[in-house]
């Protein structure tokens, strides 16, 4: 990040502190939080979403929805004889949304990206893989620049990837796990391993004629192995040796949590990073009871699951702990907030994922307070007015808001005579920590003026400003990896609590805070992260840092 960019970001944040858009919205605060309509229409339905390090969000749906409501610029058209909807399409199916200006521009994808996956590489490029039809083995790259567009390579994958999951590895590669009829994994780029590797666990978790194991929940554990969850259970995978090193118990009750019985999951914040043994914990929430998908195809919509299951994956004898949510939810998203809490948002109260198979939209976000005692962790917040059903998305922004878009449970764009019309809008949920009453507690990062790169295992010093009384023991720094979000799962989502090693008062409400950066790529793979200072659960605006 250049010095000029940093200074402009600080000035913008100072303006937001006195006039944040979330603080000007006239909605009820009884339940907590605010909603902000950003765009009535971006022309496409945001089925996939990724925040990049230039504060722009890339979103896309699929090419075979038919023509979108956003024309491609300068008479451009896509010609694809293999497309199942349009052989010539002069409309966009992807956009770049500029968060700071609240503007967007059309992007052009060449082949079908429907139900694909992706991750951001260490250099900041979005690498997106797979899709449907002629897109199923494609690898596409989008670089964060003001004039960039999608670049595509033919047959960059060894197998067809549709409903797969990607994860960045400590060596910078991506692993791509599973997908429809793919009981294996592979890597991109292909510089080390070019072939696929069998993963029988995906076959074992495949329910006949329903699947219930697509878009598996994949997390990098602190020992470099991968936690892979599908259906109702999980394994720990040594992806280098292609060996399962641990099998976790089935979630009590045995109901499925993976697509199409779609729940969601997060790796909870990693803490105590200086310890010799670091604990890692996973939270899985929502989903649909056994048989929900089959019943939905017959017009019967079973109530969604109302439980979450939490497990310490590094424990030698791990066990699931069950918690009850205030609201049952299928097709919901789980977003890690800068202070380490989890936001549950979007989804339905009954049915399952799939065309027309969801009912009873869940309009209220729910906050999960990670460190509270069990039984006191959930808070229900202010509802939106816009149902976000199948094919909805959510992403954390640098200013602490959560961007929300999408919802299209139809095989094409459909705006009339249906229960839940195709949704083209973008809105933002403003968590309670953005309320004006917390401005005196809210930190502002004011230095250093350049954070172009930070190294592993080094001391990092930030200068911050807090206008109110500072509780030094309640100040800490967090690092958040922005995620690739689709189908209720945020791939590569990761939050590290760096803590607070030392605070030094500088006068005039300014302080230095020192922390130690993560010691290895097993804890935080190299790449771009958002760095926040948190004071009494109130986060600053984030700054971009590149861990290398």
Automatic annotation (TrEMBL):
Kindly list the GO CC terms recorded for this protein: extracellular space
Query: Which controlled-vocabulary keywords does the entry list?
Result: Oxidoreductase, Secreted, Signal
- Family annotation (Pfam families): Glyoxal_oxid_N (PF07250), GO-like_E_set (PF09118)
- Glyoxal oxidase N-terminal domain location is 47-433
Source domain of life: Eukaryota
Signal peptide span:
1-19
Q: What is this protein called?
A: Aldehyde oxidase GLOX
Q: What is its main location?
A: secreted
Question: Where is it localised?
Answer: Secreted
Q: Domain Galactose oxidase-like Early set spans what residues? A: 442-546
Q: Which GO terms describe its molecular function?
A: oxidoreductase activity
What InterPro entries does the entry give? Answer: Gal_Oxase/kelch_b-propeller, Gal_Oxidase_central_sf, Glyoxal_oxidase_N, GO-like_E_set, Ig-like_fold, Ig_E-set
């Amino acid at each position: 990040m250049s010095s000029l960019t940093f200074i402009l970001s600080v000035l913008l944040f100072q303006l937001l502190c006195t006039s944040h858009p979330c603080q000007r919205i006239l909605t009820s605060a009884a339940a907590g939080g605010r909603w902000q309509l950003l765009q009535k229409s971006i022309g496409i339905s945001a089925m996939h979403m990724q925040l990049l390090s230039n504060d722009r969000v890339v979103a896309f749906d699929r090419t075979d929805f038919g023509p979108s409501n956003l024309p491609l610029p300068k008479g451009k058209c896509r010609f694809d004889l293999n497309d199942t909807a349009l052989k010539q399409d002069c409309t966009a199916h992807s956009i770049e949304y500029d968060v700071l200006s609240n503007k967007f521009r059309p992007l052009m994808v060449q082949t079908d990206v429907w139900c694909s996956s992706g991750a951001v590489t260490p250099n900041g490029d979005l690498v997106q893989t797979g899709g449907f039809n002629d897109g199923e083995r494609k690898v596409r790259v989008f670089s964060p620049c003001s004039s960039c567009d999608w670049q595509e390579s033919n047959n960059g994958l060894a197998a067809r990837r549709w409903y797969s999951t990607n994860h960045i590895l400590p060596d910078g590669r991506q692993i791509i796990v599973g997908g429809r009829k793919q009981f294996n994994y592979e890597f991109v780029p292909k510089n080390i391993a070019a072939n696929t590797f069998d993963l029988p666990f995906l076959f074992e978790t495949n329910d006949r004629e329903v699947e219930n194991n697509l878009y598996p929940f994949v997390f990098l554990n602190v020992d470099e192995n991968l936690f892979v969850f599908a259906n109702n259970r999980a394994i720990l995978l040594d992806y280098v040796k292609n060996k399962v090193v641990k099998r976790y118990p089935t979630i009590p009750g045995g109901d499925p949590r993976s697509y199409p019985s779609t729940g969601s999951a997060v790796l909870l914040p990693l803490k105590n990073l200086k310890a010799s043994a670091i604990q890692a914990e996973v939270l899985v929430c929502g989903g649909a009871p056994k048989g929900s998908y089959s019943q939905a195809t017959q017009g019967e919509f079973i109530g969604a699951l109302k439980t979450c299951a939490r497990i310490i994956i590094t424990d030698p004898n791990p066990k699931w702990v069950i918690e009850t949510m205030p609201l049952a939810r299928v097709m919901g998203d789980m977003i890690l907030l800068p202070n380490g809490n989890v936001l549950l948002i979007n989804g339905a109260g009954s049915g399952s994922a799939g065309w027309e198979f969801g009912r009873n939209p869940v309009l209220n976000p729910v906050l999960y307070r990670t460190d509270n005692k069990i039984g006191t962790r959930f808070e229900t917040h202010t509802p939106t007015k816009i149902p976000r059903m199948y094919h909805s998305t959510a992403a954390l922004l640098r200013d602490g808001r959560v961007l929300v878009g999408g919802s299209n449970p139809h095989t094409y764009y459909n705006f009339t005579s249906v229960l839940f019309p195709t949704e083209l809008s973008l809105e933002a949920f403003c968590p309670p920590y953005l309320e004006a009453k917390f401005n005196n507690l809210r930190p502002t990062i004011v230095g250093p003026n350049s954070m172009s790169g930070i190294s592993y295992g080094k001391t990092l010093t930030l200068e911050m400003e807090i206008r109110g009384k500072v509780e030094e023991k309640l100040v800490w720094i967090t690092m958040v990896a922005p995620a690739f979000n689709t189908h209720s799962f945020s791939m590569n989502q990761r939050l590290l609590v760096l803590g607070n090693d030392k605070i030094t008062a500088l006068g005039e409400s300014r302080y230095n805070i020192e922390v130690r950066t993560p010691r290895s790529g097993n804890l935080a793979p190299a790449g771009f992260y958002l760095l926040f200072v948190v004071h009494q659960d109130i986060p600053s605006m984030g700054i971009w840092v590149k861990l290398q």
